[in-house]
Amino acid sequence: MHAAHPIDVRPEVAADLKAGRPVVAMSTAAIAHSLPWPENLEIAKLAEAAARQERVTLTSVAVWKGRLTVGLSASEIEALAHGASTLRAGRRDLATAAVRGATAATTVSASIQIAHQAGIRLLITGAIGGVGGGNSNVWDISADLVELARNPVAVVTSGVRSVLDLNSTAEMLESYSVPVLGFGTESLPVFYQRPANQLASMRVDAPAEVAAMLAMHWSINGMGVVVANPTPSELALSPDELQPALVEVKQQAAAAKVKARDLPPFLMGRLNRLTKGRALRAYRGSMEANARLAAQIARAMAAT
User: What is the DSSP letter of 249?
Assistant: First the structure.
């Protein structure tokens, strides 16, 4: 019989948490499985530097050699970026990875669970999963939404993955009682684009306002929250540029019979080529902006 695998919170992170210093977690699946080398490592470093400028610790989350780990070292992050992850682990895969002693980058759903167990309330990512945009009768609902409904963690994201159904995702978040806070916008954005026509639950314009909303939400037993921070305007793709590229990528995915869970890594490479590198630049800018915003929110929360 296998021994239990507790969360391994590395000493530096544990010390920050014990002292009440602000800490933000980062999902690692995109770094390990969606973004190309060496840009993936550069993006991870850029996000960490943005948080550090705000005097906040940004800690990467993953399964490292069977241990659910918070606070990967620089060398471990580089190893993930260079192919050490044998599994793109969602929430359902955590026990499998632990029992097998695997090293696995974690999706938003798995990262929410690990962050929550470690006592971290803020997580950053590029985009969250949602409801599939195909015509299939099979329900295609991301575990990201389910874990948001189960755990009191706020995810700072640049929107919903661009291949998904934005309206259905917003409706599902509402059904799960997950607020969507639009930072500087009334809308829930699509990743890579500026906000669309789908309204957020509430517009917020300052990190302190987000912190106050989170404190109130959690004080009345609310669970997850989406903080939607649109792709920076100077890097965002226009609908006329993004939508035709997405149509082509979807057709390629359908022809290759790519499963929903394998779509993110399939999407990134092809979309970046079709947009002549602009998709990757938008991803880089979004991760930096999300890390900075999450750090500012974390500092505001720590100050109350």
Answer: H
How many structural domains does the chain have? 1
Contact predicate 132/164, CB 8 Å: yes
Q: How far, in Å, CA of 125 to CA of 54, rounded?
A: 18
If DSSP codes are grouped into helix, strand and coil, which group holds residue 196? strand
Q: What is the pTM of this model?
A: 0.94
Q: Which domain holds residue 284?
A: 8-302
Q: Of 60, 64, 59, 75, which is closest to residue 21 (Cα–Cα)?
A: 59
Q: Measured between alpha carbons, how far is 149 from 136 in angstroms, rounded to an integer? A: 24
Q: What is the pLDDT of residues 105-149, one digit of tens each?
A: 999 999 999 999 999 999 999 999 999 865 454 468 999 999 999
Residues belonging to the chain:
304
Q: Is residue 1 part of a domain?
A: no
Spatial distance between the Cα atoms of 249 and 278, rounded to a whole number of angstroms: 15
48, two tokens? 């960490």
CATH number at residue 44: 3.40.1790.10
